[in-house]
Amino acid sequence: MEIKQFDRALADSKLYPLTATGVNTMQVNVGRLCNQACRHCHVEAGPGRKEVMLKETMELCLDILKDTEIPTVDITGGAPEMNPDFRWFVEECVMLKRHVMVRSNLTILTETGYEGLPEFFAENHVEVIASLPCYTEGNTDSQRGEGVFRKSVEALKRLNSLGYGKEGSGLVLNLVYNPGGPFLPSSQKALETDYKRVLLESYGIAFNNLFTITNLPIGRFLAELNSSGNLRMYLDKLAASYNPCAAANVMCKQLLSVGWDGTLYDCDFNQMLGLSVNHGAPTHLKEFDLSTLSKRQIVTGIHCYGCTAGAGSSCGGATT
User: Fold this and answer.
1) Sorting pLDDT into bands at 50, 70 and 90, what band is 145?
2) Where are the domains of the chain?
3) Cβ(113)–Cβ(140) below 8 Å
4) The dihedral of CA 244, 289, 102, 124: what is its sign?
5) I need a surface site. Which of 16, 193, 265, 298 has the fewest CB within 10 A?
6) CATH number of the domain at 6-308, please?
């Protein structure tokens, strides 16, 4: 049976066309350079990637922030900390009184030359969103590489020692769960309870929230689905699990994604597919127009079933 086109699913649930309702978050991908090469990575990031945002492009982002009231800057990668101008960019965003979030793989915080990052995050009250696909060593290492869990625990303990994840500190530490295979995440609330219990009992680690994020059929995960013969099964599962409530709350309605070269996208997933904003909206930072971008029609595709299946998925976890 042919999979229903995503726009048809939106139309059937009276949500077409999918349209932005503002821009509350500027999500900036500062490059695909990373110290890891996780097998589920939709960015296909790794140590050999050359795509790195230049300081001039960061300055364009800052100019836009100065001219608008976009409240949140969400910095991602790759390992965003590996961009040579990362710290400068964070400090500039903080000086503009923006809420800054950094998506960290944790292990970079243990690498030579990056040891002072936890203190830097704390000094600037950066919200840390950290990838930890499981609370067990075996499952995490199988997805992200040998030794990753041990390094992640070390990094989390350092963040905790500075107050991250501790009640009353004002320093927010959120963790991210990705499924280890072609299936949907289980209940975010139940997983968060399990994570908090195991990490506290076994390692003395505390954190604020757990975000469950569905693996989209993009990048390395798509290659894995193809090689294992599970692509059609997974696409069928996502489409069959389409949830109109999740579709009504997709993150792209309030978020704008900026690529390493300044190109604008509706989300980081569209960015990795090369699907820039469309339907008459400006496609680069140099032509930025908040009024037009705040009400743009969002570019969709079959991969969008990943964000609208089950309880929904976003960079902030489940949406319903």
Assistant:
1) confident
2) 6-308
3) no
4) negative
5) 193
6) 3.20.20.70
